[in-house]
Design goal:
disordered N terminus; single chain; 392 residues; Beta-lactamase; three-stranded antiparallel sheet; alpha+beta
Length: 392
């Protein structure tokens, strides 16, 4: 490598036929800042075909098994737990949430179904007075506050991204129905059997593998764009992102808190690698390491079916959700197959399953990407991986 031609070194391997993916990753890494650290992993029909990472040559700690804060990509693990329990018959999508959680019926929420709740249609995006930092780390505390909250729109009549609370809401349903936390079910049914580096509750022994999330470094033009975004203290957007609470700190710092990592807050507190994200989504529909798919065809169809489509009242933009999961093709990558489902995260992470092409994808990065959500480079990386998967 010649000095100045690349700011970070690409490591890892790709399967035959996926060489273009490594080239696309290298082109992106070459244009990034010197402290870039990121990972890309993909499976095709249950076989890992892409395993790449990059970081400064001087920093040996950057590796394929490094753990990053994945922010809202955490929601994919939480929604998978709900899908498994629906598949088992433990939960029923069209049963009222109050059937499992009687206190939820307060303030006119008695008719809200689990399907409406997980599809971001319940209008329960936050609480009027906001959450403390300590409460946001604790799904049980969030759920207790939300049970008494009046919805911000008539449930079922519109939808809006429940950014920081959806995992706590559905997690309380899981706890009431099973006697176990969502995090415990995920560990037992998903993470441990597959050995996934995607944790909802990071054990202390894995702490040395975690790398602190680095803040976004926008250009002056990007900063001006951020400053111009309308977010008053009492808007739906500010309530959903808890912005009405002074002194709560920056979003960047959320997974940097040991309390958040330890408790595995199910909306945004997950910690993992690209391998872990891609491996989880591969396991939803493919045989992986001799294990049958986690989801049956009918459940896969339900998960990927569009449940909320149109103008999102929180993000103030057109969006599409399946059964909790983001509808990945409709939101970002229209060349993916119908029914592709997944979730991105504020740091730039992206992960999804595309059962029709046999593709599962995971991407993480350490430094927050502009403007938040799936980092822009995913567009080219996803296209390269998808093309190679179809050709294979």
């Amino acid at each position: 490598m010649t000095e100045g031609t690349r700011t970070a070194t690409v490591h890892g391997a790709v399967a035959d036929g996926f060489e273009a993916v490594r080239e696309a990753f290298a082109v992106f890494v070459a244009g990034e800042r010197a402290d870039y650290q990121g990972q890309l992993s993909a499976y095709a029909h249950g076989r890992r075909v892409v395993d790449l990472w990059a970081g400064p040559e001087a920093e040996a700690e950057s590796g394929g098994d490094t753990l990053h804060g994945v922010f809202s990509s955490t929601k994919g693990a939480a929604h998978l737990v709900v899908a498994l329990l629906v598949q088992d018959g433990v939960l029923a999508l069209d049963r009222e949430v109050a059937h499992y959680w009687p206190e939820f019926a307060a303030e006119g929420k008695g008719a809200v179904t689990l399907r409406e709740l997980i599809s971001h249609r319940a209008g329960l995006i936050g609480v009027d007075a906001g959450f403390t930092v300590e409460e946001l780390a604790d799904d049980r505390a969030i759920a207790q506050r939300l049970a008494a909250q009046r919805p911000f729109w008539r449930p079922g009549q519109a939808f809006g991204y429940h950014a920081l609370v959806i995992g706590a809401l559905t997690g309380e349903v899981v706890r009431r129905a099973t006697g176990r936390t969502l995090q415990e079910v995920y560990e037992e049914r998903v993470r441990a059997p597959y050995g996934l580096d995607l944790f909802l509750g990071l054990p202390a022994e894995h702490e040395p593998r975690f790398r602190t999330v680095l803040p976004m470094t926008p250009t002056p033009a990007q900063q001006a764009e951020l400053d111009a975004m309308p977010r008053g203290p009492h808007t739906l957007t500010s309530i959903a992102f808890n912005d009405q609470v002074p002194g709560q700190g920056e979003l960047t710092d959320f997974p940097n808190s040991r309390a958040v990592r330890a408790k595995g807050q199910a909306s945004a507190g997950g910690v993992g690698s690209a391998r872990g994200l891609a491996g989880m989504y591969a396991a939803t529909f493919s045989e992986v390491d001799g294990r049958p798919p986690l989801l049956k065809p009918d459940t896969l169809a339900e998960v990927g079916q569009i449940h909320s489509l149109g103008f999102d009242l929180v993000t103030r933009a057109p969006r599409a959700f399946g059964l909790g999961f983001q509808a990945t093709a409709e939101n970002l990558y229209p060349f993916l197959g119908a029914g592709a489902f997944g979730h991105s995260g504020a740091s730039g992470s992206q992960a999804f399953a595309d059962p029709r092409s046999g593709l599962a994808y995971g991407y993480t990065r350490r430094r927050m990407a502009f403007p938040g959500g799936a980092a822009p480079e995913n567009a080219e990386l996803v296209r390269a991986v998808h093309a190679a998967a179809l050709a294979s």
